[in-house]
Design brief:
Elements (H helix, E strand, L loop, with lengths): L9 E4 L3 H4 L9 E5 L4 H4 L2 H12 L2 E5 L8 H13 L4 E6 L1 H15 L21 E5 L12 E4 L6 E4 L8 E4 L9 H20 L5 H18 L8 H21 L4 H12 L3 H6 L2 H8 L3 H13 L4 H12 L7 H11 L14 H12 L5
Helix pairs in contact: 4-5, 6-7, 6-8, 7-8, 9-14, 11-13, 14-15
Bound molecules: NADP nicotinamide-adenine-dinucleotide phosphate (NAP) and zinc ion.
The site of zinc ion has 7 residues, from helix 6 and helix 10.
Length: 371
Amino acid sequence: MNASFYLPTRVFAERGALVKHPEFLRIGHSALIVTGKKSAKLCGALDDVTALLNASGITYTVFDQITENPPLLTCYQGGKLAAECHADFVIGIGGGSPLDAAKAIAAFASNQGIEPMDIYNEGKRTKPSLPIIAIPTTAGTGSEVNPYSVLTLPEGDKKKTFKCANSWPRTAFVDPLYTDSLPYATTISTALDAFAHALESYLSPKSSAFSEAAALFAAEKLWDVLSQYPDEFTPEMRDDLSVAATAAGMAISVTGTGFPHPMGYSLTMLDGVPHGRACAAFAGEYIDYNEKTEVGKARIARFAAAIGATPKVIKTYLPALAAVELSFTDEEIEQRVSLIEKAGNYVNSPYILTKTEMRDIYRKLFNKTKK
Ligand code: NAP
Ligand code: ZN
């Protein structure tokens, strides 16, 4: 049995996590706080962090320029700012975008003088990143417990993941309270992202006994909430979504993700579909293709049984929740395939898609009216 697991991140996952464990925020003298435009303030996390830093005499600068699907170049600017203000650690507060950005900024901060694309080049990025603290305000990406930093390249239509040995956050404070302010649609989309992580990790050939346990723990909680299709999210539901998203993040830290992720990136980058909904749009095809293999079929059956569903219900319900209604011409499909065909994710499931099948999937889902 393979039961390997590695998690260098200390995780506090409870209401009041930060205020209950302030000593783990005090890891330097000067912090760069990385956030999006509004949500870190809106949800109360920024105030909690700055109050604790002020009380401890730790100086800080707030860099609130992170937009969704964070651009590499904004992270490069953030790295310069971190160096200018002599930051010795980075605190990311937000959804996956600010958390992923914090990892890249921490790398640029200690590797001043490199060019933006050099972040992907270990030969040029020679110094270890600044230590990172992650405080998620969405319940989705699991970025707080993995080393991945998904960045938008300067051309603007492609994402590329950066990771290095020290882009794991040192500590994650996962407080569901910070997700209370999430709008309904963002809550659904981010929960769909976490569910995609759980499913794609569970099917991955790289999975281990512990990543599978984390994936099932996550999927069960997410399904409990999502399958109710609630009118609003109660605090108990927020608690479940939050811990589930972190567990699914742990699962993908072992395995990475499968083909719904790159295929979804094209819908996010070119069509503005939020990340979680974009991935969930491909859940039905992901299950159908993987069921063509013996291993895939058995794993999907186990996964569905563990969460009290059937493969048929999962593959119908997730794309329905994602509600992605797009229509592409053959030329537009070609453009999308060329953007995502080289991703490494295709080998990460029992069934390995061909380029023709990528085209077929886009055509089946999104070529209903246009010719
Ligand atoms: P996000 O892009 O970080 O944020 C989406 C929106 O939600 C933003 O408008 C943000 O506002 C708002 N928001 C965040 N928290 C809020 C809160 N508590 N209350 C109200 N509004 C809030 O969303 P995300 O889905 O968490 O992250 C997606 C990104 O993560 C993508 O770039 C994706 O590629 C990446 N990702 C990374 C991993 C990984 O393993 N590292 C995994 C999956 C996805 P502000 O702009 O004001 O903050
Ligand atoms: Zn994802």
